[in-house]
Amino acid sequence: MNLNLIIVSLIFILIILFCIFYILRKGRMAIKYSLVWLFASFVLLLFLAFPNLFNWLTHLLGFDIGSNMIFAGLIAMLMFITIVLTVIVSGQNEKIRLLIQEVSMLKEKIK
After folding, report:
1. Nearest 5 degrees, angle CA 66-CA 69-CA 73?
2. Has residue 1 got a pLDDT over 80?
3. What is the biggest distance separating any 2 CA atoms in the chain, rounded to whole angstroms?
4. φ, ψ for residue 30 (rounded to 5)?
5. How far apart are CA 23 and CA 38, in angstroms?
6. 22-80, pLDDT tens digit by residue?
7. DSSP class of residue 26?
8. 45 neighbors 84 (Cβ within 8 angstroms)
9. Are 63 and 72 in contact (CB under 8 A)?
10. Under 8 Å between Cβ of 34 and 24
């Protein structure tokens, strides 16, 4: 792996980590939602530190080219995030429905 590519990749990962921790510190994201991004950053750092591990995993999973594995991994990660967000939205919809019912009951008591 080229030294320039390693340096650029390391800077990119550090920027991602900085952004995640900044958003967490400001309270704009819950820790449980940031775990996916922290895990992905850790995996990228691991592959950056041990490039042979990436090649070994690529061949183990049956990919001919490493970029194909990266795209497949990104698609899988996006699908996972979509499923998690769908579960969160469904839970929020249920909470909103219950809240509306409780407010309606309170309004009825007031009248």
Report:
1. 140
2. no
3. 74
4. -75, 150
5. 12
6. 999 999 988 888 888 898 899 889 989 998 998 899 999 999 998 899 899 889 988 98
7. T
8. no
9. yes
10. yes
